[in-house]
């Protein structure tokens, strides 16, 4: 039998897109406390099932798909611009395809308006009306309000009309930033991207050690999750745990009762680091305490190798730091990154920021190691010494040299030079992610 929390999530998922949801209504409908209902609604918001807005409430929305992740719902736009919904609340769950800035003559605007668009405009009532008539929602900037006729038309067409206090440029920038952030997240691998629906090899809580051996023979997996009658994870058992156990003993006596787990929203990089750090080969994937999959070290390695071959759409902070730096390989196997310190890489006083320097140091070290041996690895420890500040527009050279490279770990010495003078020195220790 599922828990009350799970029942509420299933109830929310069954509601039609656009339905209004309230803590009191859910508590009354499912006969649960308002605290339980509140926690479940927050969980549904994290899963992308609902969107909550001030003065509006919570609305059931369509969960964004990976291929359409750059699209926003009008409900999300309200939160992004800290806006107020003046009308058309029944259309908040709809998805916008593009946004248009109404800074042109009225007769020229119609050609840019498509159904599902968002018109960003000030207090030009004719543009607001024309947009609604052509199937586009309206975002009024500058804190202006809409007339009763416009609000009535928005309600009839079920197209939101939103007001915010920002100017048009700031509003468009906020929306564009939200889309841009989603594009970056689209390129980040999450556990849900590589763990699909699969036949799980699991043990039940009441089974015995001999059942473990039978399952290992059938599947070839030596690290197995243990679940209860409701498919909730209660432990993990390995061959080492039951090496000296009697075949008739209960599996509960030997399993690890608090295993490390990940969720579908955990990044693959984070999961890889946990595997290396803890020295484990498999991580159970849970959702609402239920086991929904397992992540093996082989899954992680394949995913990371595939990700390295894919073109990136969104640019992260690291991309901005590394842009313009060229790689130079020395005869002794060392590697150097050479480039200029841009204004984006500096702090408030115009010198190279610590975060930018660490990005350069880590990147040079990883590149140097990969040229020596083609393996995946994660940085375990970094010790950094600043010797002198590096000003903006300076040309710096970050040199990485391998000190030790074993089967499971590596040590790299990195030095940063500004105009021939050593500006910083670092020692990195990495762990190798092996099959």
Automatic annotation (TrEMBL):
The domain of life is: Bacteria
Give the signal peptide, or none. none
**Mind telling me which InterPro entries this protein's record contains?**
CBS_dom, CBS_dom_sf, Diverse_CBS-Domain, DRTGG, HotDog_dom_sf, Ser_kin/Pase_Hpr-like_N_sf, Thioestr_dom, WH-like_DNA-bd_sf
Name of this protein: Transcriptional regulator
Query: Is the Nucleotide-binding keyword given for this protein?
Result: no
Family annotation (CDD domains): CBS_pair_DRTGG_assoc, hot_dog
> What PANTHER family does the database record attribute to this sequence?
CBS DOMAIN-CONTAINING PROTEIN (PTHR43080:SF2), CBS DOMAIN-CONTAINING PROTEIN CBSX3, MITOCHONDRIAL (PTHR43080)
* Coiled-coil residue windows: none
The uppermost taxa in this organism's lineage are: Bacteria, Bacillati, Bacillota, Bacilli, Bacillales
Identify the keywords attached in UniProt to this record, alphabetized: CBS domain
One Pfam family from the UniProt entry?
A: DRTGG
Q: Where is the CBS domain?
A: 195-253, 255-312
Note whether Manganese occurs among the keywords: no
The cross-references to SMART domains, in alphabetical order and at most eight, read: CBS (SM00116)
Q: Name the species this protein comes from.
A: Alicyclobacillus cycloheptanicus
């Amino acid at each position: 039998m599922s828990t009350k929390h799970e029942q509420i999530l299933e109830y929310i998922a069954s509601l039609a897109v656009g339905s209004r949801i309230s803590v009191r209504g859910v508590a009354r409908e499912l006969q649960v406390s308002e605290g339980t209902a509140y926690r479940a609604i927050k969980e549904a918001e994290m899963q992308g099932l609902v969107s909550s807005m001030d003065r509006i409430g919570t609305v059931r929305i369509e969960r964004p798909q990976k291929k359409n992740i750059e699209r926003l719902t009008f409900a999300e736009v309200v939160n992004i611009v800290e806006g107020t919904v003046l009308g058309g609340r029944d259309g908040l769950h709809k998805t916008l395809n593009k946004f248009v800035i109404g800074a042109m003559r009225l007769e020229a605007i119609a050609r840019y308006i498509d159904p599902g668009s968002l018109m960003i405009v000030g207090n030009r009532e004719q543009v607001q009306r024309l947009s609604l008539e052509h199937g586009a929602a309206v975002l009024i900037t500058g804190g202006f309000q809409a007339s009763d006729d416009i609000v009535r038309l928005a309600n009839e067409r079920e197209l939101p009309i939103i007001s915010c206090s920002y100017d048009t440029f700031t509003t468009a920038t906020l929306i564009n930033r939200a889309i841009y952030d989603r594009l970056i997240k689209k390129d980040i691998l999450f556990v849900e991207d590589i763990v699909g629906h699969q036949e799980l090899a699991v043990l039940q809580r009441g089974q015995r050690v001999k059942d473990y051996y039978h399952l290992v023979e059938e599947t070839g997996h030596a690290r197995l999750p243990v679940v209860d009658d409701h498919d909730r994870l209660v432990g993990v058992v390995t061959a080492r745990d039951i090496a000296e156990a009697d075949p008739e003993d209960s599996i509960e006596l030997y399993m690890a009762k608090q295993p490390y787990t990940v969720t579908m929203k955990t990044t693959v990089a984070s999961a890889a680091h946990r595997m290396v750090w803890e020295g484990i080969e498999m991580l159970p994937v849970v959702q609402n305490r239920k086991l929904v999959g397992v992540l093996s070290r082989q899954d992680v390695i394949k995913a990371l190798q595939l990700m390295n071959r894919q073109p990136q759409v969104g640019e992260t902070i690291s991309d901005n730091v590394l842009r313009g730096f060229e790689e130079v390989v020395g005869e002794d196997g060392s590697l150097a990154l050479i480039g200029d310190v841009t204004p984006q890489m500096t702090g408030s006083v115009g010198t190279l920021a610590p975060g930018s320097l660490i990005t350069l140091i880590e990147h040079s070290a990883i590149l140097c190691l990969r040229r020596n041996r083609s393996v995946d690895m994660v940085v375990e420890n970094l010790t950094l010494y600043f010797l002198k500040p590096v000003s903006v527009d300076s040309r710096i050279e970050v040199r990485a040299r391998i000190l030790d490279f074993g089967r499971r770990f590596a040590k790299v010495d990195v030095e940063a030079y500004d105009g021939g003078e050593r500006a910083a020195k670092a020692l990195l220790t990495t762990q190798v992610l092996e099959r």
